[in-house]
Amino acid sequence: MAEVSLKDVEKRYAMVPVLSGLNLDIADGEFTVLVGPSGCGKTTTLNMIAGLESITGGTLRIGARDVTTLPPKDRDIAMVFQSYALFPHMTVRDNIAFGMKIRKTPKAEIETQIRQVAQRLRIDDLLDRLPKALSGGQRQRVALGRALVRRPGVFLMDEPLSNLDAKMRIEARSFLTKMHQEVGTTTVYVTHDQAEAMTMGSKIVVMNGGKIQQAAAPLEVYNRPANQFVAGFIGSPAMNFLRLLYDGNALLDQACRLRIAVPECRRAALAGQQGKTVTLGVRPEHFRILQPGAIPGSDSIAFNVDVVQHLGHEILLDLSAGDHRCIARLPPSDRSKLGDDRLFSIDMDHVHYFNGDSGENLIDYAWQQ
Amino acid sequence: MSDATLNASAMRRGSFASVLPKLAATLLMLVLAAVWLGPLLLIVMTSIKSNAEFLAGPFALPRSPTIQPYIDVWFGLGFGTLLRNSLIYATAGSALAVTLALVPAFALSRMNVPGRKWIFGLLLTGLMLPQQTVLIPLYDTLRTFHLLDTKIGLIIVHGVYGMPLQVLILRGFMTTIPPEIEKAAYVEGATDFQVFWKVILPLSVPGILVGYTLNFIAIWKEFVFGLVFLNSEENFPVTVGMLKLNSDRYLAVFNLPAAGLVISQLPIVILFILTYRQISGGNLSGAVKG
Amino acid sequence: MASSASRFDDGTFVGFARRHVFVTVFGVAVPLLVFACFIGYPIVYTIYLSFFEWNGMAPQKKFVGFANYAYLLHDKYFYIALVNNAKWLVVSLVFPVSLGFLIAYVMKARLVFAPSLLRTIVFFPVTMSLIAVGLMFLLILNPVFGAFDTLLRSVGLGFLVHEWFGDYRIALYTLAVISGWAFTGMPMIFYFAGLGDVPKETFDAARIEGAGHWRMIRSVALPQLRPVTAIIVMLTLFESLRAFDLIAVLTKGAPFGMTNVLGYLVYMESFWNSRFGYGAALSVVILVIAGSLAALLLGKVLKGAFDV
């Protein structure tokens, strides 16, 4: 058991910084998910924690120790790879025993450990098979077993579920979560799948462009995104963004006669934005469709229905108003048709306001609390 | 490319134009088969003819096949010794080449060895060097180490000159091993040596076999080094020993040299049959294009 | 201890060596040492020797400056050999390389029955020593008992019968064609593998556009195979500079040095005429030719073929 702490960690390749000023504290026992689009630096970060890539600046602590320059084997970590990275020429037993043999653990001890882990993962009848004779899910559990048997302070997982098919992935997701609840080991988990991040993590670290965008609990990230990137990355379908002009009272777009009044309680936060562009963020579920003939309010927009997607339990509408494009999530009872002009109201309690240039969330939630 | 795809273009039109390429190709194949197989068959045929039958002409089928030419040429040239020597050179020389190449291939396939471009340049130099240009100094070097006209000397030369190609072949193979497997071993606490010995080496066995076989054949074929660095007949490999076949004594009647040729190639034929699939597959392209 | 904290990173050589002792010793140092002794030193020594006169026996070598090179410029046999190398190269590029491609294409397109049999037959001579190949054709091209001339006479082409190895006008071409016969399997399998790497969709697309085989070869296969062609051209180049075995077993440069090539001339001058200094100078010329051609090819055509 150990906590992990990155302080001003930096990564340069041939003097070009790809990651810089990385600060992150992961508490003991926490299941932390690093999530972001490909190339955001999440895997590099994981590899630096593992010791597979050097840290070119800053310090990394695991437990009480500074491990910045230590090789992987001295870091008290275990790792599960995307491709499982089982040794193809070794049996399941030898795969799991590999690390213990290297550390010259006594034979009897190795055998006991293997049996315990195999039972827990339900792979005890596969021990003498070669990896090629296993299914994807079984391989994944063997890879997990190889990591578990070390009883490390920290588990590192690099997209361990992305090679599984959709059904297996959901099973494995809950399996991993359950395993974490039982074992309680600090886990750092990398994925590009925001749904995986939301369901598994006790803490989500959203990364983009080599920087941490936000690190917080899943619902916190969902409900109070630090900036436009986080808001757009977490949630599916993604949050809608409307770039509008702020006149001190309302957000407007002259071209398509759009005017949305900003509630009194938010005007303070938007005070500095008068005369500038503000991006309004609205999640698809925060649109409400108004009955034909309803009177347009201060929070309503007229949209044209471009596409209707019936998903059974809900309906997604692709909408447009001038240059603005939105997706709304509606109950299955909705009867909108292609080409309809419909009036929607926005749930103004749940919208977000982002700086039109920097994308920063203009509401300071920390201050508000 | 699917084999059917190319063909289908012709099939579709189903006219004379579609038959033409196929006809031309079949004709080509028959001519090629005659050109490539003909000489070999003629030699095998000649090798089992008696002197009298030989005079009946090269295309006359042997009516009473005999192995006498084989017996004569075997003892005349001392093929027992020659084959044994070639076997020693090819076996040990290839083993040395592969052994020397394994760790460099590992390093070049997996690590950012500083100066790797230079190392590759040296490898290519060794690969392309016309051997004739370095015969004199090599001769000198071998003499200095008292290795001239010794089996061990020739084995070392073969091993060293086989190494560059082996590095490329093995590197090509090792780069196909997923790096994550190796990273997993590092995380589990393995050292460079343990990763190499317990993970990379066992997984490289198919590549090693391909490289070894190709090197074996190359040494079996080699002629210049054997010619220059050896003086005693008891050290000659087959290629050097066979030169004697080009003499009036053996060329009076062709069945003896023909039998000698067949004997010299027989071990490779066996190896060829055993490993043809591996060595003629796409593996060679993997050696040069990582 | 060779630990691995940063094994996937760039670094200085000293840093690398300290972290990866095992790899540095057995993966870099030992091979480099072996290389230096048996390949590097000989090259340097050859260059050194080219400035001396030496019969290979005398304890003292006589420094002669550029005399060996000056002699070379007036040596008739050098020019014959040089031109012969060029002829050999042209024959090698035309015959085995283009035929190898054609066979590979025809097999891949399944235009022939039993393609793998054809492949095996054509590849087989690649495994034969050139000494064996040479002896084989010595028998087959023999003017009295040889199968080839017998065949020519029997089909009424007797006027084509030649002293294949004795006629100074054709002997070199005979040798080059024999070498091509033995070499064709090499370009064939390279092209075969190369064609296998071309995405199926590329050919599908061409087919949908209505391309025939000729078009397919010209516009799809050959452009896609350019890297393979570059490698084969380079291989052929160096093989032709190495040409030795066939000449040693068949003609020994005769008649009148008309079948001599540089690779054999070096050997003759050094080990038969005991002019080691002059042999070294010839070697240097070969090295310069080989080196500049390699640099040209590696720099231009092959960029990325050996992705370093």
Automatic annotation (TrEMBL), chain A:
A Pfam cross-reference name: ABC_tran
CDD domains registered for this protein in UniProt: ABC_MalK_N
Predominant subcellular localization, coarse grouping: membrane
Keywords, ordered alphabetically: ATP-binding, Cell membrane, Membrane, Nucleotide-binding, Translocase, Transport
PROSITE patterns xref list: ABC_TRANSPORTER_1, ABC_TRANSPORTER_2
Domain called ABC transporter: residue spans: 4-234
Subcellular location: Cell inner membrane
Entry GO CC: ATP-binding cassette (ABC) transporter complex, substrate-binding subunit-containing
Record SUPFAM superfamilies: MOP-like, P-loop containing nucleoside triphosphate hydrolases
GO biological process, one term: carbohydrate transport
Highest taxon above the source species: Bacteria
Molecular-function GO terms, alphabetical: ABC-type transporter activity; ATP binding; ATP hydrolysis activity
Protein topology in the membrane: Peripheral membrane protein
UniProt-listed InterPro entries: AAA+_ATPase, ABC_transporter-like_ATP-bd, ABC_transporter-like_CS, ABC_transpr_MalK-like, ABC_transpr_MalK/UgpC-like, Mo/tungstate-bd_C_term_dom, NA-bd_OB-fold, OB_MalK-like
PANTHER family recorded: MALTODEXTRIN IMPORT ATP-BINDING PROTEIN MSMX, TREHALOSE IMPORT ATP-BINDING PROTEIN SUGC
Record family assignment: Belongs to the ABC transporter superfamily.
NCBIfam families, per database record: PRK11650.1
Record protein name field: ABC transporter-like protein
Taxonomy of the source species: Bacteria, Pseudomonadati, Pseudomonadota, Alphaproteobacteria, Hyphomicrobiales
Automatic annotation (TrEMBL), chain B:
GO biological process: transmembrane transport
Keywords attached to this entry: Cell membrane, Membrane, Sugar transport, Transmembrane, Transmembrane helix, Transport
All copies of domain ABC transmembrane type-1, residue ranges: 83-275
Transmembrane parts of this sequence: 20-45, 87-107, 119-139, 151-174, 195-220, 250-274
Topology with respect to the bilayer: Multi-pass membrane protein
CC per GO annotation: plasma membrane
Compartmental location: Cell membrane
Principal subcellular localization: membrane
InterPro entries: BP-dep_ABC_trans_perm, MetI-like, MetI-like_sf
A Pfam family reported for this protein in Swiss-Prot or TrEMBL: BPD_transp_1
Known function: Part of the ABC transporter complex MalEFGK involved in maltose/maltodextrin import. Probably responsible for the translocation of the substrate across the membrane.
Cross-referenced PANTHER family: MALTOSE TRANSPORT SYSTEM PERMEASE-RELATED, MALTOSE_MALTODEXTRIN TRANSPORT SYSTEM PERMEASE PROTEIN MALG
Similarity annotation: Belongs to the binding-protein-dependent transport system permease family. MalFG subfamily.
UniProt-recorded name of the protein: Maltose/maltodextrin transport system permease protein MalG
UniProtKB/TrEMBL annotation, chain C:
Pfam families in alphabetical order: BPD_transp_1
Cross-referenced CDD domains: TM_PBP2 (cd06261)
Keywords assigned: Cell membrane, Membrane, Transmembrane, Transmembrane helix, Transport
Topology versus the membrane: Multi-pass membrane protein
Residue stretches making up the ABC transmembrane type-1 domain: 82-297
SUPFAM superfamilies on file: MetI-like
A GO CC annotation given for this chain: plasma membrane
Transmembrane segments: 21-48, 86-105, 117-141, 170-195, 278-298
Family label: Belongs to the binding-protein-dependent transport system permease family.
Protein name, as recorded: Binding-protein-dependent transporters inner membrane component
The organism's taxonomic lineage, starting at the top: Bacteria, Pseudomonadati, Pseudomonadota, Alphaproteobacteria, Hyphomicrobiales
